[in-house]
């Protein structure tokens, strides 16, 4: 019959252990002749229904939170996502030169625009697809969102820092063309987003149709 002292010793070892312990692990630490199996059975019975239970996993024993209380151990927190240099440059080009197509972004950056970079900006809600340019191929144009203004604490696009300030802050390291200018706040305010003369208003229907074709 297991002694109370053996049960206490096994309990102490399991509580202090960094991981689960096998019968042999426990026996090596206990006095010779200690009934480890009986002590484990007694502890398992004593902890049944408690907030912490004694369980055997892969022939090793450990204390763990009762399964029905696992929800108490979860914690939700927001992890800020840092934009890559490519994403920062792409976002700056879109912000200062919207509405802008992928080809125009590539022309300014001098490298191919990664689909993943645009996907990240779209997923974060900083950028959205505005419409289609009324040019051959009807390319998609991109623009910023209200979430972009909120994220950077801007009342409107007119509050964007100048290109020189962006470069000085290390957020933009590009040799921009001479016609790369600040947006006109009169043409695009914080609460309105009129389509440019060269954009097609039926964009959303067209895009969804193409997306369905790709999926099929």
Automatic annotation (TrEMBL):
Pfam families (alphabetical): SMC_ScpB
Keywords: Cell cycle, Cell division, Chromosome partition, Cytoplasm
NCBIfam families, A to Z: SMC-Scp complex subunit ScpB (TIGR00281)
Keyword Metal-binding: no
InterPro entries named in the record: ScpB_csome_segregation (IPR005234), WH-like_DNA-bd_sf (IPR036388), WH_DNA-bd_sf (IPR036390)
Gene Ontology terms describing biological process: cell division; chromosome separation
Disordered: region residues: 183-216
Signal peptide limits: none
Protein name (Swiss-Prot/TrEMBL): SMC-Scp complex subunit ScpB
Coiled-coil intervals: none
């Amino acid at each position: 019959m297991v002694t109370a002292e053996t049960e206490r010793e096994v309990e102490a070892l399991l509580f202090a252990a960094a991981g689960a312990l096998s019968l042999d692990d426990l026996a090596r630490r206990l006095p010779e002749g200690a009934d480890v199996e009986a002590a484990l059975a007694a502890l398992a019975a004593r902890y049944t229904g408690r907030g912490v239970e004694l369980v055997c996993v892969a022939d090793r024993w450990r204390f763990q939170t009762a399964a029905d209380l696992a929800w108490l151990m979860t914690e939700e927190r927001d992890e800020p996502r840092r934009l890559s240099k490519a994403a920062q440059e792409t976002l700056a080009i879109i912000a200062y030169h919207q509405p802008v197509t992928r080809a125009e972004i590539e022309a300014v950056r001098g490298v191919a625009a990664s689909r993943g970079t645009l996907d990240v900006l779209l997923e974060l809600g900083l950028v959205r697809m505005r419409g289609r340019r009324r040019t051959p191929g009807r390319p998609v144009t991109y623009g910023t969102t209200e979430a972009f203004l909120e994220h950077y604490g801007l009342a409107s696009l007119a509050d964007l820092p100048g290109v020189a300030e962006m470069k000085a802050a290390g957020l933009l390291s590009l040799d921009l063309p001479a016609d790369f200018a600040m947006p006109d706040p009169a043409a695009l305010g914080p609460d309105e987003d009129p389509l440019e003369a060269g954009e097609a208003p039926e964009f959303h229907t067209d895009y969804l149709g193409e997306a369905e074709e790709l999926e099929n």
